[in-house]
Amino acid sequence: MSTNFTPPPMPSYGPSPVPPPPPPRKNRTLLVAVAAAVVAAAVSAAVTAGVTGDDEAGPAPTVTVTETASVGGGDTPAAEEEAAEEAPAASEDTDDGVHALDETVTYESDVEVSLSGFERTVSSEYAMPEKTPYARFTVKVRNSGTKTLDTTLLTVNCSYGKDGRSSESVFDSDTGPDGTPQTKLLAGRSINVPWGCELPKGEKLIQIEVAPDFDSETAIFTGPVT
Fold first, then answer.
1. Where exactly are the structural domains of the chain?
2. Residue 191, number of CB atoms within 10 A of its CB
3. Domain at 98-224, CATH from 2.40.110.10, 2.60.40.1240, 3.40.309.10, 3.90.550.10
4. Is it the case that residue 49 has pLDDT exceeding 50?
5. CA atoms within a 13 Å half-sphere pointing along the CA-CB vector of 7
6. What per-residue confidence (pLDDT) applies to 56?
7. In the predicted model, what is the mean pLDDT of the chain?
8. What pLDDT is recorded for position 48?
9. What CA–CA distance (Å, rounded) separates 139 from 152?
10. Over pLDDT 90: what percentage of the chain?
11. Please, which residues bridge with residue 106 across strands?
12. Does residue 62 carry a pLDDT above 50?
């Protein structure tokens, strides 16, 4: 009796299965760009809703602006600072040393100088210079200080006209022998010194420079004499 034996089938060994490729890595830059685009779109939508009056849109962002109020002319702080730099300081002395004929000049030593009694006249034939039109006036010096003032060093110089022509001093019978005082001025005392300066008939403007003593600055008086 013959028996047919069929061997079991051999296992089939094919090529090893290939593992699936890993999932692609997300691009971080792309995600950031997408997120930014989403945010921009949301902001744009909110602004559009605020402009068009959409009731469903959320409230628009509030922007607070702080303004600096200026006093006087509405200038900006920068303009005010520039104007302050151009403006003179309050402590600066703006006195140029020129005074009107009727003003009184007071020195730091409390010595006061003033002019008064202006009149036009003509010198006599015995004056120096003679028969000359001139302005006659009085120089008053008051010593309100504590020291004696040497008024023998008093000086008075004049000029006339817009061109500042030199004016000769006139010594007439009313102005004394040489026009200057011959005594010293004690504290608390004052002295009146008659003086005359040449002033032609066609001229009115006169300038008179007075220094009460050698150590004092010259005070300048100017104005018309009618």
1. 98-224
2. 17
3. 2.60.40.1240
4. no
5. 3
6. 45
7. 72
8. 44
9. 13
10. 48
11. 112
12. no
- Cα Rg of the chain (Å, integer): 52
Rounded to an integer, the average pLDDT of 36-40 is 49
What pLDDT score does 181 carry? 86
Identify the sign of the CA torsion 122, 128, 131, 132: negative
Q: Give the torsion sign (CA, 141, 144, 145, 148).
A: positive
pLDDT in the model for residue 159: 97
Q: Which two tokens stand for residue 164?
A: 């500042």
Residues 193/126, Cβ–Cβ less than 8 Å: no
- C-alpha to C-alpha distance for 161 and 222, rounded to whole angstroms: 10
Could you write out the three-class secondary structure of the chain? CCCCCCCCCCCCCCCCCCCCCCCCCCCHHHHHHHHHHHHHHHHHHHHHHHHHCCCCCCCCCCCCCCCCCCCCCCCCHHHHHHHHHHCCCCCCCCCCCEEECCCEEECCCCEEEEEEEEEEEECCCCCECCCCEEEEEEEEEEECCCCCECHHHCEEEEEECCCCEEECECECCCCCCCCCCCCCECCCCEEEEEEEEECCCCCCEEEEEEECCCCCCCEEEEEECC
| pLDDT at res. 182 | 87
